[in-house]
Amino acid sequence: MINDVLREYEASMRKATEALKHHLATIRTGRASSGMVEHLQVEAYGTHMPLNQLANISVPESRLIVIQPFDNGMIKIIEKAIQNSDLSINPSNDGRVIRLAVPQLTEERRREMVKMVRHRVEEVKISVRNQRRDAIDDLKQLEEEKLISEDDLHRGQERIQQLTERTSKDLDQIGSEKEAEVLAV
């Protein structure tokens, strides 16, 4: 029973880590990255779809993203979605492909991006701590119902704390790497 709680908690830690990585990939740096646009929502065919389901996205140069729609009729719709996003990049097209020239970030904008990264990392760490509390509550409930002993409860709490500390270090590492990427000129 303890192992079930631990497995569930560990799975939620992995999901939190992956969610942070996914979110940070969308934060703009001075370099082009397909992650900046691939999950951008585009209203197409009567529904909202991520851009990567409507087009091939490539990064041929460090400051250029090329988007080639599967259907050339989608170019204007994709352009509009990019313009309405918070990317602050103006798209250009030649009728077949859309090009996004990623401009150099100003120092002030880099600092704002670093604040965003730190804020997002902290949000995920708070989520991890809340999940830790819930997992410990689950163990305490099992102990109250006499399904596990008090010693098992303490061992389970220690393992949950170790998982939390390891996850927190991983999240800090991911955040630090993204900060360095944002600050790189």
UniProtKB/TrEMBL annotation:
<feature type="domain" description="Ribosome recycling factor">
    <location>
        <begin position="20"/>
        <end position="183"/>
    </location>
</feature>
<protein>
    <recommendedName>
        <fullName>Ribosome-recycling factor</fullName>
    </recommendedName>
</protein>
<dbReference type="GO" id="GO:0006415">
    <property type="term" value="P:translational termination"/>
</dbReference>
<dbReference type="InterPro" id="IPR036191">
    <property type="entry name" value="RRF_sf"/>
</dbReference>
<keyword id="KW-0963">Cytoplasm</keyword>
<feature type="coiled-coil region">
    <location>
        <begin position="125"/>
        <end position="159"/>
    </location>
</feature>
<dbReference type="Pfam" id="PF01765">
    <property type="entry name" value="RRF"/>
</dbReference>
<dbReference type="GO" id="GO:0005737">
    <property type="term" value="C:cytoplasm"/>
</dbReference>
<dbReference type="GO" id="GO:0043023">
    <property type="term" value="F:ribosomal large subunit binding"/>
</dbReference>
<keyword id="KW-0648">Protein biosynthesis</keyword>
<keyword id="KW-0175">Coiled coil</keyword>
<comment type="similarity">
    <text>Belongs to the RRF family.</text>
</comment>
<dbReference type="InterPro" id="IPR002661">
    <property type="entry name" value="Ribosome_recyc_fac"/>
</dbReference>
<dbReference type="InterPro" id="IPR023584">
    <property type="entry name" value="Ribosome_recyc_fac_dom"/>
</dbReference>
<comment type="function">
    <text>Responsible for the release of ribosomes from messenger RNA at the termination of protein biosynthesis. May increase the efficiency of translation by recycling ribosomes from one round of translation to another.</text>
</comment>
